[in-house]
Fold this sequence. Notes:
The protein is an alpha+beta fold and about 230 residues long. It has helices spanning about 40-60, 65-75, 200-210; strands spanning about 1-10, 20-25, 30-40, 80-95, 105-110, 125-135, 140-145, 155, 155, 160, 170, 175-180, 215-225.
Amino acid sequence: MKITVGHASLPRVGFTANGDAVFVRNDGSRLLLVVIDALGHGPAAASVAATALGVLGEIPHSSSLHDVVERVHAHLRGGRGAAALFLLVSAATASPAAVSPGIFGALASAGGAGGAHGGATAGQTPVEVASYEVCSVGNVEARARPSKLPLLLTPGVLGLRLRAPRIVRGTFTVTTRVVIFTDGISGRIDVPSVDGIAPEAASSSLLQHHRREHDDATVAIADIEL
Length: 226
């Protein structure tokens, strides 16, 4: 598995401080990608985003996504809060029988173990897949191509009030691009328009063409090659 990540971000027009932030920890076989959108704009929002980045940088690599979400929530208490989308991707294997092109290259379950990372059956050569966990708190969105990335919104705000994190687990069985964006990007974002473009340049292009100038805006892209 090869993972390539790029991102681009701009503050609200008229501001220099940005309340959006992106955290990337990518060791090639495991990716933690978090896109943060602190409430509001300006220096106060930027301070919240910076705190979240600091916490994420100190979290042990082996932490579960549930623990990551809860730790960020705990450390943001007392501030204005934030929305965020958390994505954890890990290399895995599956039996060929479990990898079906009829399900758009992804097997998913809410809170379950995921359908295709239980290993190969006897006599079969395992194939490489990517298992994922994703948790969305607030209004940070994600799209995936050609696989599907189901989201189950966790009600609340990080640092203020949060129900138990709702984590969707699943498997990418084909090379997949995941695009994550804050609400400073139009919901009409044209993800296919940057197919074939490297993640960093693709993120900049989507930001340029779909940014809402009245808000901080961020796009992050992860290409997961299998």
